[in-house]
Write a structure and sequence with these properties.
Blueprint (H helix, E strand, L loop, with lengths): L6 E3 L5 E3 L2 E2 H8 L3 E5 H19 L3 E6 L6 H9 L3 E4 L2 H9 L7 E3 L6 H9 L4 E4 L2 H13 L4 E8 L21 E2 L4 H11 L3 E7 L11 H20 L5 E3 L17 H19 L5 E4 L3 H4 L3 E13 L3 E6 L8 H5 L5 E3 L7 E7 L8 E9 L7 E5 L20 E4 L4 E5 L4 H5 L4
Parallel strand pairs: 4-20, 5-6, 5-13, 6-7, 7-8, 8-9, 9-10, 9-11, 11-12, 12-13, 15-17
Antiparallel strand pairs: 1-2, 2-3, 4-14, 14-15, 14-19, 16-19, 17-18, 20-21
Helix pairs in contact: 2-9, 5-6, 8-9
The structure holds ligand LLP.
Length: 432
């Protein structure tokens, strides 16, 4: 086992993912290639659904944050798991609906919904809106009321909690662009306003403090702040919070040195804490929700490349250049995100340190710096980057007019293409 128990080496030293030979898959499907371990996705879903059921019975539901990886097959798997989804755009909603996902279990998020987005979601019977701000609230109210509709909503508030994660995924502190802050009193006014508007059925609250969260107490702290707020809005407006969604965010292991989070244990602790707090305040236990993305799909993913060149600059640096890059994985250039990188074909006694570079025309196109790979790594070798199931395909681009890789799903019985490789014709498809 390397990093995760779905990554092993065969007797010949070649890499196996979900029991399948990675070099063989590379040969069969070509590279660059995204692989996804379907069994692992289902397992990760069950970590949430199982512990939600144990802790709350039917009074809770985890929803999958599709932004981590959105394509039809994944929505079908999540549907089978009995989860809802968090969708942030008509594109994600359309993909989910095309996969037969029930619209009533779609929670429409986002801080920038346009009138057209709102109408699209109403047209398609999307069950829930997570309203991010007063402008959206007014727009949704007007559009829903004009149709004679009443839309279920959760109000997104910002609890003022630092999730101790990296800057671009911190969404909990007062000064972020998401939600309405409590500290300034604006969240109270937001709830008050929502309760007075037509076309809205205000059911509860939403918050999300950040992503790649390892800190043990972040969700308990969030529950503290949210239950305080629930009590305040009950006192001030007589409003009973029927639904409480505390967002996503549990971190995953990109490196062997990363902590392993016991998700069911964490959920149990959060559930107990919420129950205690509600009992102490005499609050009705709300329908409880979390919306994990990364922890559902990250360790189900692996990206496979073929080496195009190896550049050794004596006294300076060694590079391994592969046939993909920041187009299929922009996370190192964006966040300095760490990854475990392996030669998929073989192990060796002697290693050298290389920067794993992509094929894009900029020096910043580094998939991962300073990785240990066999010292004789050469053109044609296969390189695997682990834990790429989240925020890789979904953040991929066509920079330099590079086609996006396919996603091949691995089950115990077979492998199949869930998203096909883009062709050169696809790249021209929109040009008139
Ligand atoms: N709910 C909301 C409102 C969110 O904004 C997010 C993530 C999630 C749930 C899911 O969080 P997760 O369980 O995946 O941590 N592109 C970045 C991650 C951005 C996260 C955005 N929001 C990355 O590649 O690390």
């Amino acid at each position: 086992m390397i990093l995760s128990n779905n990554i092993t080496r065969g007797e010949d030293g070649s890499l196996r993912f979900a029991g399948w030979s990675v070099p063989e898959l590379a040969k069969q499907y070509g590279t660059p290639l995204y692989l996804m371990d379907e069994k692992r996705i289902r397992h990760n879903c069950r970590l949430y659904t199982g512990s939600f059921r144990d802790c709350f019975g039917e009074n809770a539901m985890p929803i999958y944050a599709g932004k981590a990886a959105a394509f039809k097959r994944i929505y079908a798997i999540v549907k089978e798991a009995g989860m809802g989804i968090d969708a942030v755009s008509p594109g994600e909603i359309h993909t989910a609906l095309s996969a037969g996902f029930p619209p009533e279990k779609i929670y429409f998020h986002g801080d920038g919904k346009t009138d057209a987005d709102i109408s699209y979601a109403l047209d398609h019977g999307v069950g829930w809106f997570i309203v991010d701000n007063p402008d959206e609230l007014l727009a949704l109210s007007a559009i829903a009321a004009a149709r004679g509709a009443v839309q279920k909503v959760l109000l997104r508030v910002t609890p003022g909690i630092d999730p101790h994660t990296y800057q671009s995924v911190n969404t909990g502190t007062v000064d972020v662009k998401f939600g309405v802050p409590m500290e300034t009193g604006q969240a109270l006014a937001f709830v008050h306003q929502a309760l007075s508007l037509p076309g809205l059925d205000v059911r509860g609250l939403h918050c999300h403090v950040g992503s790649e969260v390892f800190d043990e107490t972040v969700f308990e702290d969030t529950v503290d702040v949210m239950t305080d707020f629930m009590q305040q809005i009950r006192e001030r407006f007589g409003f009973v919070t029927q639904v409480l969604n505390v967002g996503g965010g549990y971190g995953v292991r990109y490196l062997d040195t990363d902590k392993r989070i016991d998700i069911p244990a964490r959920i149990r602790a959060v559930a107990e804490h919420l129950k205690e707090r509600c009992a102490a305040f005499g609050l009705e236990l709300p329908f409880f929700m979390m919306e994990p993305g990364r922890s559902i799909v990250a360790d189900a993913g692996m990206t496979v490349y073929t080496v195009s060149s190896v550049k050794r600059i004596p006294g300076y640096k060694y590079y391994v250049v592969v046939d993909g890059g920041m187009t299929d994985n922009p996370r190192y250039p964006l966040y300095h995100a760490p990854y475990t990188v392996l030669n998929a074909d073989r192990e060796t006694l002697f290693y050298a340190v290389y920067d794993l570079a992509g094929r894009c025309c900029e020096s910043g196109d580094i998939i991962q710096p300073s990785v240990k790979l066999p010292d004789d790594t050469a053109r044609g070798d296969h390189i695997a980057v682990c834990t790429t199931g989240a925020y890789n395909y979904s953040m991929a681009s066509n920079y330099n007019r590079l086609p996006r890789p396919p996603i091949v799903m691995l089950t115990e019985e077979n492998s199949y293409v869930a998203v096909r490789r883009e062709t050169l014709e696809d790249l021209n498809a929109l040009d008139l």
